[in-house]
Amino acid sequence: MEFNRHNLAVLRQVKRQARQEVNVEIHFDSSTLREDLLELAETPVSSGLRALISELVQDDEPQLPAVVKPQPQGGVPLTERLLQNQKPVARMRYRGRVVEA
Hints:
Elements: H1 5-21, H2 33-42, H3 47-60, H4 78-84, E1 91-94, E2 97-100
Antiparallel strand pairs: 1-2
Helix pairs in contact: 1-3, 2-3
């Protein structure tokens, strides 16, 4: 579980409300914190506490970065665009051979 300012504040609220409502102590450094929170949400607790727990658990799920596919510009694929954007190559003769520069 990621501990940033927002999650710590929400976790403190959950800890306080859980202690008041069901007399359950939640420890931040527990290795099973996520499972403890899910188990607490299944017990008869207030809807406010259940919403805080769901907010913490949703934040815990890893976010996959969006994959951005290169879009063709004007219907032309990227490789063709790169070939079109190349400057023409000058051909010259050097010591009797054709050289491209």
